[in-house]
Amino acid sequence: MHGLAVDGKALRGTRTSSGGDTVHLLSAALHEGRHVIAQRQVQDKSNEIPSFRPLLAGLDLTGVVITADAMHTQTGHAAQILAQGGDYILIVKANRPTLLRQLKDLPWNQIPLGDRTTGTGHGRGEIRRIKICGVRPGLPFPGAVQAVQVKRRRVRRTPGGRTKVTMKTVYAVTSLKPGRATPARTGELMRGHWQVEALHHVRDVTFGEDASRVRTGNAPRAMAAFRNLAIGLAGALGWTNMAEAVEHYHANPAHALQWFGLTI
């Protein structure tokens, strides 16, 4: 079972062919390895929602779990994923008020804790508690058979040495039936979605995407595809620090050509 994250990114400083909107790309990236397997440019004067279904059209989603943020918790999106043989975990927020209210009203206090994880990073510690509840029948969302509640407790040290504690509860729906994924694996898939955010960060910080002078027409989309390819190939070769990989191949271009069986 593989996770496939769908998420969008605006390329700051760019302009579409019509000279209007900033170029905005919607991508589908594997959680493991951050390989982008599909990318589509969002149409002018629109948002990511109409681009979601064309992005995934034609893909074999058997054994794939689509993860996406609340914008894409749409009935049509869910129906398409199921029709193509896949499953989904979709975040539910205030843009789906009825669905969110139904999830909040589930008897979470009576449901045992499914999994608990801890982690540190970026100067903060985090505890995540996950519960999963069966919801069929009665939940008005295609294929949804379970609801997920994740409670996150974050502890962060402020520059002044004080401790700041924040609590956040996130709800989601999933088509994964009980037994298909444990609470621990469900939590992994939800956390894995942020690999696409890490991919976007690498494109910005390491590859200087937002500072690029390639800003008009189809060129920004093409350059984003090349950056995705480079990141995916470097990851496949075992690089975990993309900045180090870029520095290495900049100093040793012949090593990069060896990827393709070429020499200079």
Description of the structure:
The protein is an alpha+beta fold. The chain has 8 helices and 9 strands. The chain has helices at 49-56, 75-83, 97-104, 183-192, 195-205, 219-236, 242-251, 253-257; strands spanning 2-10, 24-30, 36-41, 64-68, 87-92, 115-121, 124-134, 146-157, 163-174. It has a 9-stranded mixed beta sheet, sandwiched between helices. The protein is globular, with a radius of gyration of 20 Å. It starts with a strand and ends in a 7-residue tail after the last helix. The model has no long low-confidence stretch (mean pLDDT 87).
Short account of what is shown:
The chain is 30% helix and 28% strand. It is an alpha+beta fold and 264 residues long. The mean pLDDT is 87.
What is the assembly state of the chains in this entry?
Answer: single chain
Helix content: 25-40%
Number of helices: 8
**What does the largest sheet look like?**
9 strands, mixed
Class by helix and strand content? alpha+beta
State the order of secondary-structure elements, H for helix, E for strand.
Answer: EEEHEHEHEEEEHHHHH
- Strand line-up across the major sheet: 3-2-1-4-5-9-8-7-6
Average of the residue pLDDT scores:
87
Total beta-strand segments: 9
